[in-house]
Amino acid sequence: MFSLDELRAGLAEHRPQILALVHAETSTGACQPLEGVGELCREFNCLLLADTVTSLGGLPLFLDDWGIDMAYSGSQKCLSCPPGISPLTLGPRAIAKLNQRQTKVPNWYLDLSMVGKYWGQERTYHHTAPISMIYALREALRLIAEEGLAERWSRHQANAERLWEGLASLGLKCHVEEPYRLPSLITVCIPEGVDGKAVTQKLLTDYNIEVGNGLGELAGQVWRIGLMGFNSRPENVLMVLDAFKETIG
Ligand SMILES: Cc1ncc(COP(=O)(O)O)c(C=O)c1O
Hints:
Elements lengths: L3 H11 L3 E5 L1 E2 L4 E2 L5 H7 L3 E5 L18 E3 L15 E3 L1 H8 L12 H8 L11 H17 L1 H21 L15 E5 L6 H12 L4 E2 L8 E5 L7 H15 L1
The structure holds pyridoxal-5'-phosphate.
The site of pyridoxal-5'-phosphate has 6 residues, from loops.
């Protein structure tokens, strides 16, 4: 996680055109606070791009209030929709930047100037729409509207807290300090002397529970437990805690 002071120092040193931050970091389980970052980026005439793949629908996210100029997400995490479609949003500063381009976008797939014409009045062909995925996303969003966004955020938080408490009672520590700990992806420190991969393998084969192994520098250091969307439920928390107890107890 970066503090506003660290971000300010980085922007002053590098003067980037875009600052890209991951809001909910799935490999570490950390939440990057975004409040105030948009204002900072405006001071440095820089756009703010947020990766909200593991946060959208699972924890508070206020794109406009936080001055986020562009954000993308995934359908398959806290939105609980099948994978294959990526929500994307651009604010006025990002669209202005796109419109000021002096050169053509050098690829087809992410040419947002062409995508804009496809969405707009012109309906210029850009791609074939994944219609069944759009219906699936609509249904996922309908379920969120039915539950209420704030209620959904509270549910994710409450179930994460159940898991954190249960892990502590098994003597397991979370990798991230609580103020920055994600409710959607919890990284658990593998205790000394425990073979982390053997545990995840046993959880999968004996309990049909898939817990992720650590990635990059955290390989062999942490387990990663997802509590996202439909899966963020008290019975799942109890099931995973029981399985851990039996496996490492
Ligand atoms: C924070 C974050 N960003 C991006 C991605 C990539 O998403 P996808 O696998 O849908 O391309 C992931 C996937 O896990 C992620 O967790």
